[in-house]
Amino acid sequence: MRRFLFLFPALLAAPALAEGYDRPIPQAQSATAEFWYALACLALVVAMVVVQRLVSRR
């Protein structure tokens, strides 16, 4: 029984061998992604201008 308890964790750990790391290949952005990124950048700039005006009034 003790031998079985020793072999059981060893057999479970055998498939857990790690593979080599494959670096991800960057994908090109689509035109839709670029549009939403530009829209988000403009929204951020507008929000910062609004905050700056609110802070400067006080």
Order of helices and strands: HH
Alpha plus pi helix count: 2
Task: Give the overall shape, derived from the CA principal axes.
Answer: elongated
Please tell me how large the radius of gyration is.
Answer: 28 Å
Query: What's the helical proportion of residues?
Result: 55-70%
Strand share of the residues? under 5%
Tally of DSSP β-strands: 0
First-last Cα distance:
78 Å
Report on the biggest sheet: none
Contiguous runs where pLDDT drops below 50 for at least 5 residues: none
Structural class: mainly alpha
Mean pLDDT: 83
Question: What's the short story on this structure?
Answer:
The protein contains 2 helices and no strands. The chain has helices spanning 2-13, 31-57. The mean pLDDT is 83.
